[in-house]
Design goal:
heterodimer; A: alpha+beta; Phosphorylase Kinase, domain 1; 7 helices; 6 strands; elongated; B: Rna Polymerase Sigma Factor, Chain: A; 2 domains; globular
Chain lengths: 253, 172
């Protein structure tokens, strides 16, 4: 008898569970065609399997809302865990680049900090800042002083901070940009003077803590959390702008 | 860059499979929902053990399975649980075109199988897991999964061919 004709009892089990390689499957079917009583047994198994599936699918568990909430929470946590695991190498790379720059700085080649090296969204933020200055000087331009982060979130998908109560918003503008709308808010602050807060989606995913840089006649601080990027544009000292950025970075976490 | 789609961690989408399995294990609808909730809580606590790109359903089923086994051990004896079930009468009749009495009888016969056979049969024949996947969930070798399925099927065939049927009716 050739090996193909020997059917193991376990192979019959695997056949009924649909877990045989095509070749073995055919061998089993050939064998079953010559063994009607075993074939009838397999058919009975398959019938019971179908019936069990029907019986169990139709069965109602006493469903609770809490279970759905728990499931959604777990899904979210796993998602964030995954994002974090994926972002870790990127973050490590950022730290290395930053350390490189710092080491460079120590040696005294600060001129290497070219303002052209800032991300696109920072340049856009500086442009928006200048536009706002211009608008403020023109009496014909109406300033929008209503600032509602939730409404802006609903309209633009951009997450914006709740500002400290001592800060007054003097203008809110939505600008088009490559990856959807961006928002610029002009704010009078007691601590840092007049600043522009700019939020946009730059495209790439990154986690980067605030860093400061002089761009044109302004001082900027910018950072990125996931797919959201932020920039502060002001005319104050780098330390002040950096402090404002750190404050907002914390508020947005 | 990898996709950040929600589908990757669709725990909500796994709920029907979790509930079905919990029901096969506990054979009691409200206990089943409790077990699912506990399993989700345990998963939240142990989410760091989930491997990237792992099988979400398998991971959740295994957590729930281990939880159930722990529960059984902590009871005074598994036999109590079995006899408690014998006295349970109500069985939801599925509402579809198929002979509902027949389905509830098959369901009852399945519920009367020993838990090892029930869980192996459930995972492979109802949820469609491979022997390897089921072996991971149950923490036993694939060969053991197969032999449990085989014994479960034999018991169901015996039930089908006669005497057990009257026993089931007595219970009702």
């Amino acid at each position: 008898m050739s090996k193909g004709n020997v059917i193991d009892a376990l192979e019959l089990v695997a056949y009924a569970d649909d877990q045989l390689e095509p070749e073995r499957r055919i061998a089993v079917e050939h064998w079953l065609s010559q063994h009607p009583s075993e074939a009838a047994g397999i058919m009975a198994d398959l019938r019971l399997r179908g019936e069990l599936r029907m019986a169990l699918v139709a069965d109602e568990v006493s469903v609770l809302d809490e279970t759905e909430l728990l499931a959604a929470r777990l899904g979210g946590k796993l998602q964030r865990q995954q994002l974090f695991r994926n972002a870790r190498p990127v973050f490590a790379a950022c730290v290395l680049v930053l350390l490189g720059w710092l080491a460079h700085d120590q040696v005294g080649h600060t001129s290497a900090w070219a303002s052209s090296a800032v991300p696109d969204y920072v340049s856009a933020a500086v442009d928006a800042h200048h536009t706002t200055e211009l608008r403020a000087s023109m009496t014909s331009q109406v300033q929008a002083t209503e600032y509602d982060p939730d409404e802006l979130m609903a309209g633009t998908g951009l997450k914006l901070p709740q500002l400290p109560s001592s800060w007054t918003v003097s203008d809110v503008q939505v600008y088009p940009s490559r990856h959807g709308p961006s928002v610029e808010i002009a704010v009078h602050t007691t601590e840092f003077g007049l600043i522009s807060i700019f939020a946009a989606r730059p495209g790439p995913f990154l986690v980067m803590p605030p860093r400061t840089r002089d761009v044109e006649d302004t001082t900027t601080a910018y950072w990125q959390v996931g797919d959201m990027a932020y920039a502060i544009v002001a005319t104050g000292h780098q330390d002040n702008v950096g402090a404002a950025a750190t404050r907002l970075f914390e508020l947005l976490r | 860059m990898a996709s950040w789609g929600r589908g990757q961690f669709d725990v909500l989408g796994q709920l029907p499979a979790l509930r079905r399995y919990a029901l096969s294990l506990t054979r009691n609808p409200s206990e089943a929902e409790d077990l699912v909730q506990e399993a989700l809580l345990r998963a939240l606590e142990r989410r760091a053990t989930y491997r990237a790109g792992g099988n979400l359903r398998g991971w959740l089923l295994a957590l729930m399975h281990n939880l159930f086994v722990d529960r059984l051990r902590s009871r005074s004896s598994a036999a109590d649980h079995e006899s408690e079930f014998g006295s349970r009468v109500a069985l939801t009749l599925p509402a579809n075109q198929y002979d509902t009495l027949r389905l509830s009888q098959v369901r009852r016969a399945f519920d009367l199988l020993p838990v090892e056979q029930r869980e192996a049969l459930h995972l492979v024949t109802i949820e469609g897991l491979s022997y390897d996947e089921a072996s991971e969930v149950l923490g036993v070798p694939a060969g053991t999964v197969m032999s449990r399925i085989s014994r479960g099927r034999e018991a169901l065939r015996r039930w089908e061919s006669g005497p057990t049927l009257s026993l089931v009716k007595e219970n009702e």
